[in-house]
């Protein structure tokens, strides 16, 4: 330690750095977001706008692996291809209105439990799970995952399997020690969470606490897979402008260790200029595979 720590701050102007240095002896910087401000921000979250911003071109362009969505899908496909991460239940934390993150996972678990804090997101997800008209079209994502998994599986079979295994869509709050309200027994064999914890935590300490809360959902020896934003301080979802804890790769390593997980793999992706569309100020994406140690 050099006597300095960094603290997150609110959405900066263009070109400004996203983290502010704080030196001992100076007044502690005020946190720009609080749990209450975050909750209020999420009241304005528009699932359709969020899907447009992140899951249509240019970000969801399958013509090249250089784009961010194919990168995320490949991380997940390669990790699940090892066959090591499997079991009865996988919980996806902060699923939002999206299912792309479950496409490789669904082959390895009897039940996928989706979760989100917002009813509007759980409803959007339910529309897709029930195959209702007007649901978001995830078929390009499913086709791409079938292609990279390379088993020649018809994409409609994967779509059907995910719908069958998506058993429950539950409310969650990662800021509670028991995020689902009541303990899930038996505990999950694996957890997945994409772009949730840093987007719902007022600061890095809360991010670490939320990660530790997720640990309560997982059996000893269980796996956790995290996708998340690097260097992001805000994102847009329609009228909502949500503050994000700007994380560096080292923060992700430190947070996983502090929350009691053993890191297995960490990959990073730098957001190319063409994908910096103004819907957020993300610098890159991380993918982490970690494991909860066996007890005793
Ligand atoms: C950036 S979105 C991520 C959505 C999706 N997983 C993805 O990969 O695009 C963050 C999600 O966290 C959810 N969320 C907000 N507050 C939360 C909380 N306290 N606990 C769990 N999830 C929360 C939001 O409703 C939203 O769906």
UniProtKB/TrEMBL annotation:
Tell whether Methyltransferase is among the UniProt keywords: yes
Per UniProt, what is one GO molecular function of this protein?
phenylethanolamine N-methyltransferase activity
Keyword tags: Methyltransferase, S-adenosyl-L-methionine, Transferase
Q: Which InterPro entries match?
A: NNMT_TEMT_trans (IPR000940), SAM-dep_methyltransferase (IPR053384), SAM-dependent_MTases_sf (IPR029063)
Question: What PROSITE patterns does the record point to?
Answer: SAM_MT_NNMT_PNMT_TEMT
What are the start and end residues of every segment in region (Disordered)?
1-34
> Which one GO biological process term can you cite for this protein?
methylation
Name any GO cellular component annotation: cytosol
Q: At which positions is S-adenosyl-L-methionine bound? A: 50, 55, 100, 116, 121, 173-174
- Lineage, top-rank taxon, reads Eukaryota
Give the family this protein belongs to, as stated in its UniProt record.
Belongs to the class I-like SAM-binding methyltransferase superfamily. NNMT/PNMT/TEMT family.
Q: What is this protein called?
A: Phenylethanolamine N-methyltransferase
């Amino acid at each position: 330690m050099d006597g300095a720590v960094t603290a997150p701050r609110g959405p900066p102007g263009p070109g400004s750095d996203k983290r502010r240095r704080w030196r001992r002896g100076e007044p502690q910087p005020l946190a720009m977001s609080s749990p209450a401000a975050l909750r209020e921000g999420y009241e304005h979250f528009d699932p359709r706008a969020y899907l447009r911003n992140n899951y249509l071109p240019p970000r969801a362009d399958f013509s090249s692996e250089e784009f961010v969505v194919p990168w995320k899908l490949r991380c997940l496909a390669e990790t699940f291809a090892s066959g090591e991460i499997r079991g009865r239940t996988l919980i996806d934390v902060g699923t939002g209105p999206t299912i792309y993150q479950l496409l490789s996972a669904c082959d390895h678990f009897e039940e996928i439990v989706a979760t989100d804090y917002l009813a509007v997101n759980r409803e959007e997800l339910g529309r897709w799970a029930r195959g209702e008209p007007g649901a978001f079209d995830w078929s390009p994502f499913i086709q791409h995952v079938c292609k990279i998994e390379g088993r020649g599986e018809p994409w409609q079979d994967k779509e059907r399997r995910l719908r069958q295994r998506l058993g429950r869509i539950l409310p969650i709050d990662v800021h509670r020690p028991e995020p689902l309200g009541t303990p899930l027994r038996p505990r999950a064999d694996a957890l997945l969470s994409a772009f949730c914890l840093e987007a719902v935590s007022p600061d890095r300490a809360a991010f670490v606490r939320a990660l530790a809360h997720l640990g309560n959902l997982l059996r000893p020896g269980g796996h956790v897979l995290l996708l998340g934003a690097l260097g992001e301080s805000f994102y847009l979802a329609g009228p909502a402008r949500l503050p994000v804890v700007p994380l560096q790769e080292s923060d992700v390593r430190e947070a996983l260790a502090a929350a009691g997980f053993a890191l297995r793999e960490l990959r990073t992706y730098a957001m190319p200029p063409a994908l910096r569309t103004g819907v957020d100020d993300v610098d890159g994406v991380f993918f982490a595979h970690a494991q909860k140690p066996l007890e005793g």
